[in-house]
Write a structure and sequence with these properties.
The chain is an all-alpha fold. It contains 14 helices and no strands. Helix content is 80%, strand content 0%.
């Protein structure tokens, strides 16, 4: 069964947020959503999985996890954390905004890629035709005619190889993104990627601060709040630092000590702000402000990704097309020199 698109997931979690905010139980919410017309099969399975899990006595987050292949472990962790903190609507709301951001970013990137993709698909066959035609020019009437079909087939093979390479890179990158949720090393590596890394880190910190705030407001222990927020962050670096920090806090040290001990995971400004808030008893308010800050930072970073990704691809395509033009021009000049030499001698 095909999964849900990011656009569809944004709508699903937005609808679930409305029901959670209204105080309606998830069973009634899912029953109501299932009765709506034109419900996708994958969306239907998601609601049915929640209902099935609830009937078995499972928590909402665990019930959501029964929709394997449709929801990711990250979604389950965010919903489970917000449910445990008694603010389910915030978890659904965060996921709705997260998937809406991804959808907007992808739409902008696809729009920006249209022209360079069309350009490269025109440049390859045209340059192939030019090179083949130029190489076939000769004063010898008995010379073998150029094989245009073979040239086009070779160009097609080259494009197919390019598609396979690009697909392999996409699959490999997707695997790394999944590994980065639990591996601090992979997470740190991905965060080094210009533009993309900054967006990833902002989203992870937004999720961390939001879940941390939920746990604190629910009266959870500081160590449990820290480890739970790290688990739901979707960042291997933050996850590892949070688990280590939870041990530090559990031994009686302050939260600031745990945050300052992991500068690779928690930015200095954030740690200093949290230290001041802890000392003044304003942690919940400080977390809410940082959550809004990182939400805006994530939105801005993803907008920059959407703006620059097509531009970088466009310049790469221009360089590739320029190489094709130079190749065709070189073939033309070689033919001209050959014709001159043949006519003279």
């Amino acid at each position: 069964m095909a999964g849900l698109s990011v656009k569809a997931k944004g709508l699903v979690y937005s609808n679930l947020e409305k029901y959670a905010r209204s105080g309606m139980g998830m069973e009634k919410a899912c029953d109501s959503l299932l009765r709506q017309p034109r419900v996708r099969s994958a969306e239907k399975k998601l609601y049915e999985s929640i209902l099935s899990g609830l009937k078995q006595g499972k928590a909402i987050g665990d019930s959501l996890g029964l929709a394997r292949g449709i929801v990711s472990p990250l979604e389950v962790e965010v919903v489970s954390a917000s449910e445990e903190g008694g603010m389910l609507e915030k978890g659904f709301g965060h996921l709705a905004e997260y998937f809406r951001r991804i959808h907007r970013t992808r739409q902008k990137i696809r729009k920006g890629l249209t022209y360079p993709i069309v350009l490269v698909h025109l440049a390859v066959p045209v340059s192939t035709l030019a090179v083949t035609a130029f190489s076939g020019l000769t004063l010898d009437a008995n010379a073998e005619k150029p094989d245009y079909m073979a040239s086009f087939l070779q160009a097609g093979k080259n494009m197919l190889i390019a598609y396979v390479v690009i697909l392999g890179l996409i699959i490999g990158f997707s695997i790394l993104v999944k590994l980065a949720r639990r591996s601090a090393a992979v997470d740190s590596l991905l965060n080094l990627i210009p533009l993309f890394g900054k967006a990833r880190k902002a989203v992870a910190l937004e999720r961390f601060t939001k879940v941390f705030e939920i746990f604190l407001l629910a009266g959870k222990k500081m160590s449990d709040s820290l480890s739970g927020a790290g688990k739901a962050s979707g960042s291997g670096s933050i996850r590892e630092a949070s688990f280590v920090g939870a041990g530090i806090v559990a031994e009686g040290d302050e939260l600031s000590s745990a945050l300052f001990s992991a500068p690779h995971a928690f930015p200095s400004d954030f740690s200093r702000g949290m230290a001041s808030a802890e000392e003044s008893g304003q942690l919940d308010r400080e977390l809410a402000e940082w959550s809004r800050f990182y939400s805006e930072a994530a939105g801005d970073a993803m907008d920059r990704v959407a703006e620059w990704a097509p531009k970088l691809f466009y310049w790469a395509i221009l360089l590739f097309v320029a190489a094709l033009i130079i190749r065709a021009a070189s073939a033309y000049f070689n033919v001209v020199n050959k014709l001159i030499n043949d006519s003279v001698f």
